[in-house]
Structure to design on (231 residues):
């Protein structure tokens, strides 16, 4: 799959941006919101617990969150799973106990004009590594593992690909410091654009075409809220 509206998607792209759009009180409200939401999955392979931000558990906070994002992004629409009632989830909470692999969150619909990915760290420390290379296909996990490459994903699951690879050897010192959970041969040709060191309560806005992964520097766990948007 390739996105149809590539020119429009590329015209909306910018460098990653760090901003502060929530007060300390609002961050605490978001953390408390996470605690009351029902869990939808605990992926034991990835060692991550996921909870969607369902609307109407806290209508005041729903309104605050949506409007803060609008102030930062301009006009946008949510691009996430929907509840049984057909309502947009406002984001996905990820409580990670192990680092996630290299992937891209570019969506599953070729007709969608994908926009920004909004990440708000809630518990840390942690890092997210963004690479310069972009991806304009569907959401994908990048791997050189033959079994993974032969995996047939279900609808709504990431593809598997090694099409990200280049020829240049990846920096060994950087790998040792940040990415020991990834085979260094799976990083050939990749160039790091940004190491985002999590700051609790800060918000990172980044294009959904950015290939990225967590760093291997997780001490206990990290908790973040990620929202995917479209035009």
């Amino acid at each position: 799959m390739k996105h149809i509206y590539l020119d429009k998607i590329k015209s909306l792209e910018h460098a990653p941006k760090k901003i502060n759009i929530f007060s300390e009180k609002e961050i605490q409200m978001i953390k408390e919101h996470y605690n009351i939401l029902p869990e939808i999955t605990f992926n034991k392979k990835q060692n991550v617990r996921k909870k969607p931000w369902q609307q109407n558990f806290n209508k005041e906070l729903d309104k605050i969150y949506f409007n803060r994002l609008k102030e930062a992004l301009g006009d946008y629409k949510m691009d996430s799973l929907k509840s049984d009632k057909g309502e947009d989830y406002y984001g996905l909470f990820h409580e990670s106990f192990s680092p996630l692999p290299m992937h891209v969150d570019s969506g599953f619909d070729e007709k969608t004009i994908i926009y920004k990915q909004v990440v708000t760290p809630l518990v840390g420390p942690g890092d997210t590594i963004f690479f310069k290379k972009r991806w304009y296909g569907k959401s994908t996990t990048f791997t050189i593992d033959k079994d993974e490459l032969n995996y047939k994903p279900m609808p709504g699951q990431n593809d598997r690909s090694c099409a990200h690879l280049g020829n240049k050897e990846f920096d060994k010192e950087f790998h040792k410091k940040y990415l020991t959970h990834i085979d260094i041969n799976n990083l050939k040709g990749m160039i790091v654009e940004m190491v985002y060191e999590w700051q609790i309560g800060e918000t990172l806005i980044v294009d959904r075409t950015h290939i990225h992964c967590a760093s291997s520097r997780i001490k206990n766990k990290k908790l973040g809220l990620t929202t995917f948007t479209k035009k």
Q: What stands out?
A: The domain at 6-230 is CATH 2.60.120 (Jelly Rolls). The chain has one domain: 6-230.
